[in-house]
Amino acid sequence: MVKLVFFAPYPNILPVIQRVISERPESKDIRYQVVQDYYNNKLEHVDGDVIIARGFTAHTLKRRKIPCVELKTTGYDVLAAVKMCLNQWDVKRIAVVGAFNMVYGAEQVNQVYPGLRVSCYAEDDEIMLKTAVLRAKEDGNQVIVGGYSTVGIAKQCDVPAVMIRSGREAVNQAITEALALAAVTVYEREKRDEIASIMNYSFQGIISVNRKGIITLANSCCYSYMKERKEPLAGTDIREVFPGIRIEEVIHQKKKILSEVCDCSSRPVMVNCVPVSGESQDFGAVITFQGTEQIQAEEGKLRKRIYSTGFTAKYDFTQILYKSPVMGNLIKTAEKYSYADSNILIHGETGTGKELFAQSIHNSSPRRKNPFVAINCAALPENLLESELFGYVEGAFTGAARGGKMGFFEIAHRGTIFLDEIGDISPKLQSRLLRVLQEREIIRLGNDTVIPIDVRVICATNRNLRQEVERGNFRRDLLYRLDVLELNIPPLRERRQDIPYLVRKMTGFEHERTGCVLERISEEGMELLKRHDWPGNVREIRNFCERICILCERPVAGAGEVRQALPGIPGDEDGAGGKQKDTGLKVAERQALVEALERFDHNRTRTAAYLKIDKSTLWRKMKKYNLLDETKLNKKTE
Which of 82, 294, 346, 378 has the largest count of CB atoms under 10 Å? Predict the structure, then answer.
C-alpha cells in the first residue's frame, strides 16, 4: 500500500484527483490525502511516502530533499487559462506570473494569438509574488494568469486574474511518477533502517559528517559516551565532540586518522577517521571510536583465551641470558635459522633451554603470528601420544571424545610444532612422523581423509641420535628429515663464565619478585658456584637461586649459605654424598672419553668433532683423566 499526499494548488482540484485515482488499475493499492496549499505554506510534517505538489511548493520540497513529484503545468493548461481571459475580457496584454517551473515557455501562446501579447514573470521565491504582480501591472498588463496564490494576490491589487488549472492528464502523470518514486523511497527507507539497525547494534560509536564537518548521522552507542548531552548530535560540528581532530585533512586531503587517542566528554577513546569518496556534499568522513578501557578489557580477554590454550610462544632471543661468546654465536646461528623454513634439531642436556630456543626461533620467524604447539614426547604413552599428535574421529577407540579431536599438527597449521624428547618416540610413531614430514599431510585415527598441513617442525633431544641410529633405536631416514638444521646448546660446565651472570640475574629477579632479604652472593660463595658442574644446567641454577633467596636471612650470602642451599657442592667437607656424586660423574665422563677415542682410533680431530667439543677442550679432559700417556704411542698423524 502506497500513501500519496497532494498539496492541492486550488480547492476544486479534489474531484479531478478522485476521478483519476479511481480510474487507475492499482487504485486499491493507493491511499491518498489532500492538503490545501496556500501562499507561504509552512509545509508542516505530513505522513506519506511521496508528496505531489505544484509550483513554489514543489520547488521548496525538492530543495529540502523531501520525496516529491511535481504536478506539472502543460502548455495546454496555460493556453486554456489565456482563452478563458479572452472570453471574459477584451484585452491585448496578459501576464503569466508564478514559479519558473510553472510559467516557463508561456510566451509560445503569442503564436496562437498574433494580436495578443503574453509576457512571463517567473520567480524563485513565493514571497516575491506580490512584487511580480505589481510589476506586471505597471508594465501595462491587463490580466494576470497564474496559480491559486497568484490569483489571490492579483485580486488584492485590483487586477483581473484567471487561475491555471491542472488537467486530468497532468494529475495522472504525476501519480504515475509518484508511484515509481514511492517504490524507490520505500526501498531506500528499508535499507536505511537496516543500516541504522546494524549501526545501533555496534559496540563502537559511529558518526558520519559532511564536507563541512557537520554531523549527519550518529548511532546510539555515541550517546553512551555523552550521557550528559540532551540534544541530538546531528547538525553539530564534529570539533565540538572531538576537539582538535584534524577533520580538514581527512575530508580535503584524503588522509586517514587511525588508532588515535582523543578525548570525548573527558574520556579517552581510540578514534579512526577515514574520508568518504564521492562528489556529494553530504559525504565527508566516517568516524568510529571506542573507549580505551573497553579495548584494554577486550584485549585482556583475548590474551587470556590465547594463553589458556597454550599454543603460543612467550619467549624471544632477548630473554636468553648469557655472557660467553659461544652462546652469542649460537644465538646468531639460531636467528639465521628462524628466517628459513627448514626443520631444526636441537641437541642439549636437560635444563639447557632447548624450548627457550625453539620459542625464540618461532617468534623471530615469519610464522610468529600463528600457533606454537609444544609437546613432550617422553611424557605420554605411545597410544595417547599418537592420538594427541594426529587427532582422531568419533569412535576411533574406546573413550574417544564425541565429535573427535583435532591433533597438534592440525592446530599448528601455518605455525610451528615443537617435539621435545624426540628420541623417546616408538618405532611406530617414527614411521608416522616420517610420512607427515615427507607428504605434509596427516590422517586422523579412525579416518581415511587426508588433511594437508603447513607446519615447521623443531625437535629437541638430550640423546645422541646418531648413536641411537647405529643401535637400531631410531630411523636413519627420520633423522635426516629432522636434522636439516642443527643447534647444539653447550652445558654450563663448558661455558662457566655464564654461571656468575646467571646467578646474579636470577637472584635479582627473585629479589624484585618476592622482596626477599638477599641482594647478592659474596665472592667466596660465587667461587663455589663456579666450580660446581651444574648437571641440571640453567634449570638447576634457577632452582638454586629461588632456594637461597628463601633460606638466606642476610643481604649478602656467603659460602656457608651457598653450601646450605646447594648440598654436595665442591668444597663441602661434610657432603659425602656430594663427593660420591662428583666421583660418579667423573668416572662416567672418563669412560665416555675412552670409548670415543677408541672408536676413532685415538684420532683427536675426529674424536673432538664427534663429541662436539674443541680439540683444546678434548686435550684438557684427556690430561685431567690421565689419558695422554695412554695415547702418545697410538696417536695418529692428523
Answer: 346
How does DSSP classify residue 279? S
Q: Say what the pLDDT of residue 635 is.
A: 47
- Checking if the pLDDT of 404 tops 60, the result is yes
pLDDT in tens, 122-144: 887 778 888 999 999 999 999 99
Q: How far apart are CA 313 and CA 335, in angstroms?
A: 15
d(CA 355, CA 378): 14
Q: Read off φ and ψ for residue 227, nearest 5 degrees.
A: -65, -25
The DSSP line for 478-513 is: HHHHHTTEEEEEPPGGG-TTHHHHHHHHHHHHHHHH
- For the stretch 197-256, pLDDT in tens is 777 777 788 988 988 889 888 888 888 888 777 788 888 898 888 888 888 888 888 888
Can you tell me the mean pLDDT for 477-503?
93
Cα(217)–Cα(194) distance, rounded to whole angstroms?
A: 14
Q: How far apart are CA 72 and CA 97, in angstroms?
A: 15
The C-alpha cell at 583 is 666421583
Cell of 116: 495578443
Check: CB of residue 551 under 8 Å from CB of residue 545.
Answer: no
State the pLDDT confidence band at 302, using cuts at 50, 70 and 90: low
> Can you name the residues that pair with 520 across neighbouring β-strands?
556
**Residue 392 predicted with pLDDT over 80:** yes
**For 214, phi and psi rounded to 5 degrees?**
-95, 135
CA atoms of 235 and 252, how far apart (whole Å): 20
Helices and strands, counts by H and E, the chain:
26, 22
How far is Cα 279 from Cα 559, in angstroms, rounded to an integer? 82
Chain mean position to CA 606? 55
Q: Beta-carbon neighbour count of residue 165 at 10 Å? A: 18
Output the DSSP codes for 311-322. Answer: -S----GGG---
Q: Which three cell numbers stand for residue 221?
A: 552507542
Let me know if 249 is exposed, middle or buried by CB neighbors in 10 A (0-12, 13-18, 19+).
Answer: middle
Reported as a pLDDT band with limits 50, 70 and 90, residue 61 is: confident
Buried b (16+ CB within 10 A) or exposed e, 60-69: bbbeeeebbb
The total number of residues written for the chain in this structure = 638
SS3 content of the chain, % helix, strand, coil (to 5): 50, 20, 35
Closest CA to 442 of 451, 432, 433: 451
Q: Worst-scoring range by mean pLDDT, 144-148, 254-258, 465-469, 567-571? A: 567-571
DSSP for residue 111: G
Q: What is the pLDDT of residue 422?
A: 92
Query: How many angstroms separate the Cα of 606 from the Cα of each of 33, 112, 486?
Result: 105, 121, 19
Per DSSP bridges, beta strands 485-489 and 344-348 are: parallel
Give yes or no for a contact between 262 and 242, defined as CB atoms under 8 angstroms apart.
Answer: yes
User: How is residue 277 written as a grid cell?
Assistant: 569518496
Cell of 25: 488499475
In the 8-state DSSP scheme, what is residue 298? H
**Residue 516 belongs to what H/E stretch?**
none
The Cα 202–Cα 185 span in angstroms is 26
